[in-house]
Here is the input.
Amino acid sequence: MLSPPKIPFPHADTKIEESFLNSLLIQHWEIKDPDLVAKIIVKEPFPQNTAEQPAKIIWYGNGPIEKEIFKKIHVQMPNITIVGYLDDKGFHPLEDKHPHAPLPTLEHLISTDFDLMFFAEDTPAVHRLKKKLIQAGIPEEKLFNPLQKEIYKTQIHLTHNSLKDEFLNTITACCKNKKILFFIVTQRGSCPSVEFLAQSLKEQDNEFILVAAYLFTPPPNNVFEHAIYCRGSFHLLADFLQVLPIHLVYVQAHFKWAFLSQFIYAINKSLPIIHEVNDWMETFIDTPTAIAAAEEEGLWSTIELKTIQHGEDYLTNNIAGFIYKNGGQWMIDKVAKSKTPSLQLLPSQPKKMNRPPQPRSDKTEWRLVFAGKVAATQASKHFFDDIKLLPLFQDLTKQELQVTIWNSPIFNNDQLRIFFSDYYQESITNPYFQFIPGVSIEKIIDKLNGNFDFGLMLYHFNPELSIGKHHLAGSMATKIFTYLSAGLPILISPELEYMADFVVKNKIGLIIKRCETTSLKDMLHQCDYASLLEHVAEAQYKYCAEENSDKFISFIESIL
Here is the structure.
């Protein structure tokens, strides 16, 4: 079978980063099929004592693949319970109510009561970890990995080829008269601009067939003409890059996966690559203090940060083109210095998702909504202090303003109670506050339309925050276009300079300084709300995914 490729680096002295990247590639080279793994585990069951009585399991890995495996196993072995999990950032007890707090030490793990530590993969990283755990005093018989068996490698090979052949045959049969635009997407929905772009491209009469490979999550339905879930396998992705008659690769990846353009080049040097970067690590963590804080809190190691920086340098100087959404002076300078042609595409939704703005009754209370990720009060001051929104929203509800949070859709109602107990408790005791599990952008637009008066982009930016000022000043969030599609004007903090300028330019909301939040109700009564709604309706159709697709087609015609 094909071995992981050597990745080209744009700098000479990068041996440590090359080693880190090779380790990452090895971990994601073979396919991890949840159905296959579950069958093997049930066929080769846990040690006898855990198969017959309730077993406390510590699980290695907490990604979507690992969760799917455990769900399938638990159906056939319901006596198994999970007490915590290990990942590359440390040990996470499930009873931990504050997932962003400093992680427990290895001593905490050793003192935890468990019967078995289960590994659903067999990689060099797993081997190193098991050796470390044994040296720390954990009995080897507690470390269970059925996937070291030869049967797994044989079946993996068969499954891999079966998936590959089925997909290749499907694509080959329908692409005779069209060019393949091959999308590589790291995560579904986390940065949805690529999916909005694909929807609008598919509805146009153009020369492309849209094919997608989703690396770590299942692809959405009815967005691309053909899509496959790679289940974390870079090997499967490499096969497609080598065999498919691809005209252009569009890769959506930033931060940890910024090196994907280098990976594609290493696999097939003839493929033109366009790389979409939603956020730049160079602006997110840009001082020695921030780097030290990121390493101390287990978010990114120094080696990982350097590797990400190399990936960002590569894609801005060595590929066919890159796509960005953020703005501000830093981005202007970045584009000017880059050798790679670039295009700004705002993360806006298709026109069909727009809902007409709804007038409000003067008799009703002002209804404010925040749709997006928040952090618990105990989370890191360095990197999550700006999204600890409870104190700010308490200030608003004291003015009898209705505030609702639709949190990230990755959390269900039970998880909200555990991980965000402070918000959840506030929703019980405060009649002006609601805290609700999030839903997809498509669904939330309908839920917001007519039920709220303003979308919130208000934050408290404290001095302890380690996030780079260029990141805050230049960000362009998807949230702003979700509010627009729902027909809502926006309340925004001035520190978000690029977005605040966008709001002012289009007359679609109000800039609210931190000192003004305690008197916000009076400011809302004085605003010309009807005029704001008129401008929201204009902006809905001025900024849309269809505009992005037209720009994109022109862009690729100019560079290819």
User: Anything to note?
Assistant: Confidence is low (pLDDT under 50) at residues 96-104. The longest strand covers residues 80-87. The two ends are 33 Å apart (CA to CA). The CA atoms of residues 324 and 344 lie 5 Å apart.
